[in-house]
Specification:
Elements lengths: L1 H10 L6 H7 L5 H16 L3 E3 L5 E3 L5 E8 L5 E4 L6 E3 L12 E10 L2 E11 L5 E8 L2 E6 L7 E4 L11 E12 L2 E12 L5 H9 L8 H7 L15 E2 L7 E3 L8 E8 L2 E9 L10 H9 L3 E2 L4 E2 L4 H7 L7 E11 L5 E12 L3 E3 H10 L10 H21 L9 E5 L5 E6 L4 H22 L7 E3 L5 H14 L12 H11 L5 H10 L5 E3 L23 H15 L5 H41 L6 E10 L2 E5 L5 E5 L8 E4 L4 E4 L6 E2 L3 E10 L4 E8 L2 E2 L1
Parallel strand pairs: 5-7, 10-12, 13-20, 14-21, 28-33
Antiparallel strand pairs: 1-2, 3-4, 3-6, 4-5, 6-7, 8-9, 8-11, 9-10, 11-12, 15-16, 16-19, 17-18, 19-20, 22-23, 24-25, 26-27, 26-32, 27-28, 29-30, 30-31, 32-33, 33-34
Length: 701
């Protein structure tokens, strides 16, 4: 019956009542009507269709309704995160009782700039993540002040279940029962420490996000059976590459080294070796180690620590491609012609011995300044060959439409106590780009190999952006006065690349590049290959970071089964056809969780840093405009809010057509990309917010 209902609603141009569906399906008896109601309720529960306020039914893909997770903002508005689609802006008046983290149904009402705007019509599910906050007492009763101000709830603590926490302690609580829609009771399940203790600030965020920071006893027990050094038995069936000139290039403080590289010149061609730590050899399927790695999905890189996917004995030890020691690897060795095409390749199980652990800083000294640091003398020619090949590969990618948004990233610098002492731009020079180019070509080569074998696999995919979203972006450019050429009806990577080139000389380029990126879909993992739009790749995967990403570990596992153990049978294929879609969805969720955690820590540390700069003045750029004010971004990517009520030189209103704050007298006001001088007037580490005031002619407005 379900298929018949789906088919009927697909053909309908309106929502249908139960009786209209009943008649269309030619159901006659009361028992059939009862069965229909049961099926409709089941389909509604499984979000296959939507029931309107008038009790009519419609399919989501027939309507302007979407399902997603609400990401609320401390200012009251929010966005609904729709997997594989664009975010939908939700104004405070359209939240309809939803709180941060709720799964909701959102109705699309209109475009808003380059965003869609909507209203929440139904809360589908309220699944509480771990809730973290500061305990306080009122009338001798314990309460919780939630760290996440986006969650607008009152939490009462059972006074007999506080684990002896006192005022000022940060605690993790478990919800025990509901009092009403916005009030819940809870019990303390872990005391994290006092809010002023070093490291508790970041620990609180990791628990709030549900990122585990300790390994289970079962995992630790399994570690005992894993050796600290490679055994002779482990080398059987592997090719010996220990005599090859292989080395690694990473950041100064990297301890989990996934990838090593080698290069040779063969006539006019290049022989590039990308050698990746063979994590799956040690992390066997269905072990406690594997289950824990799956649940974590990815390592999380925070200001002063890494929360690893794998225990340090593996991530920093036997799996890390440390110099001077034998390590097991999966090697993708490619012959590449002068145009950047891979003309032949081999994927094999190997063992290697890295000659040196290079750093980006020292490699960039060689490639950018021709300064040879001590210990690098014998490798400089190899590095120049690599630079040459990387340039060829990058040109090849650009020719097919590779989109380089060229976006800066901020790096938070902390002292030994974890306090933020500086915020700098993360360097992305020749060394960093070289490794990026080599990893991309290896990922493509591995993905294409399995794709053409027509076997179950996990891909890194990036779908085409919606025409509507790009049209909104182009309309926004017109408002700014920029005329950009391009046929939006034919969305290709080349078109996106060309739009960026036309904007390159504009003063707002960085902001416009960011907005264009936001107009595109998010890259995710999927068992179905639809290609990677941003890289302009028809076939792409993640193969090169198995220490820190579970999909990469899975790719290695599949390579071993298919290529080296030859387990290509109906049982294996059937198993992975069922398992990989689930794995892809889970690891995509883990990636989003890690990104959210990293951003929250960065926001908190940036606010902590600016607490020491209250009263100081900075030059910045208007990065976004809202009806309550505008955000100003400083050169080091610290962002703060100028509230509209602090602009005293005129009466300003928000013009949603031009996305500007317009003064009643000056008629221009402030718009995206304007340079503004601001003074820091407030910063809250707890709220993760920074407030600015505009300074004109040496005076604060």
């Amino acid at each position: 019956m379900q298929d018949k209902i789906m088919e009927l609603l697909k053909k309908s141009d309106k929502a249908l009542s139960v009786y209209e569906i009943n008649d269309a399906l030619n159901l006659e008896s009361a028992s059939e009507l009862k069965e229909l109601l049961k099926e409709l309720n089941n389909m509604e529960d499984n979000l296959m269709l939507y029931r309107t306020k008038k009790n009519n039914y419609m399919l989501f893909n027939n309507s302007h309704l979407k399902i997603g997770d609400l990401i609320a903002n401390k200012k009251g508005f929010g966005f609904v995160d729709i997997e594989g689609d664009t975010d939908v802006f939700i104004a405070p008046s359209n939240l309809n009782g939803a709180i941060h983290g709720d799964k909701v149904i959102v109705e699309i009402t209109s475009p808003k700039g380059i965003d869609l705007e909507g209203r929440i019509v139904k809360i589908v599910d309220r699944k509480f993540k771990q809730m973290v906050g500061e305990i306080f007492y009122k009338n001798n009763m314990p309460y919780l002040k939630l760290d996440d101000e986006r969650v607008k709830l009152d939490i009462q603590i059972d006074k007999n279940k506080t684990m002896n926490a006192v005022s000022g302690h940060k605690v993790l609580v478990k919800i025990t029962n509901k009092v009403n829609d916005y009030t819940y009771r809870a019990e303390v399940i872990k005391v994290l420490g006092h809010k002023n203790d070093p490291g508790v600030d970041i620990l609180s965020i990791t628990y709030e996000m549900g990122v585990p920071d300790t390994f289970s006893d079962a995992v630790l027990k399994e570690l005992d059976s894993i050796k600290s050094e490679v055994d002779v038995e482990d080398l059987k069936g592997r090719e010996d590459l220990t005599n090859e000139v292989i080395f690694t290039i990473d950041g100064d403080d990297t301890k989990d080294i996934d990838d090593a590289i080698s290069i040779e010149k063969i006539g006019d061609n290049y022989r590039l070796g990308v050698h990746i730590a063979d994590v799956s050899y040690y992390v066997k399927e269905n072990t406690s180690l594997d289950n824990e790695a799956y649940e974590r999905g990815t390592s999380v890189y925070l200001a002063d620590r890494v929360i690893p996917m794998l225990p340090h004995k593996l991530s920093n030890g036997i799996c890390s491609l440390n110099p001077g020691v034998v390590r097991l690897a999966m090697s993708c060795i490619m012959e590449i012609d002068p145009k950047g095409n891979v003309v032949s390749y081999d994927i094999k199980q190997t063992y290697i011995k890295s000659r040196i652990q290079m750093t980006y800083k020292k490699v960039n000294m060689i490639l950018c300044d021709n300064i040879i640091p001590n210990g690098y003398e014998e490798y400089k020619d190899k590095l120049f060959q690599m630079e040459e090949l990387a340039g060829i590969l990058r040109k090849n990618k650009e020719n097919r439409g590779y989109i380089d948004f060229d976006l800066d990233e901020a790096k938070v610098i902390v002292d030994d106590s974890g306090k933020c002492v500086d915020v700098k731009l993360r360097e992305r020079s020749k060394g960093e780009m070289l490794i990026e180019d080599f990893m991309i070509v290896a990922n493509e080569t591995v993905a294409a190999h399995i794709y053409f074998m027509d076997l179950p696999f996990i891909y890194r995919v990036h779908g085409e952006p919606s025409v509507e979203k790009i049209n909104n972006f182009m309309r926004f450019l017109n408002i700014l006065g920029y005329k950009v050429k391009g046929d939006i009806s034919k969305l290709t990577p080349h078109l996106m690349q060309d739009i960026l080139k036309q904007l390159k000389d504009k003063k707002e380029f960085y902001l416009l590049s960011t907005l264009l990126l936001r107009s595109m879909q998010k890259a995710i993992y999927d068992s179905n290959n639809i290609g990677h739009f941003g890289i302009a790749s028809k076939c792409y995967t993640h193969f090169t970071s198995p220490i820190r990403r579970y999909p990469d570990t899975t790719v290695h596992r599949l390579l071993r089964k298919y290529l080296f153990e030859n387990k290509i049978n109906n049982e294996t294929i059937s198993f992975y056809e069922k398992e990989l879609p689930i794995l892809a969805k889970h690891t995509s969720m883990c990636e989003r969780r890690a990104i959210e955690c990293e951003r929250a820590v960065d926001d908190m540390k940036k606010a902590e840093y600016m607490q020491n700069h209250i009263g100081e003045e900075f030059e910045g750029v208007v990065s976004s405009v809202m009806n309550f004010g505008m955000f100003i971004e400083l050169p080091n990517l610290i962002e703060g809010l100028v509230r509209i009520d602090t602009l005293k030189d005129d009466y300003y209103t928000y013009d949603e057509n031009t996305f500007s704050l317009i003064g009643r007298k000056n008629k221009r006001g402030y718009r995206l990309g304007d340079m503004v001088k601001v003074k820091v007037i407030a910063a809250s580490k707890e709220k993760r917010t920074i407030d600015f005031e505009v300074v004109k002619n040496g005076n604060t407005e």
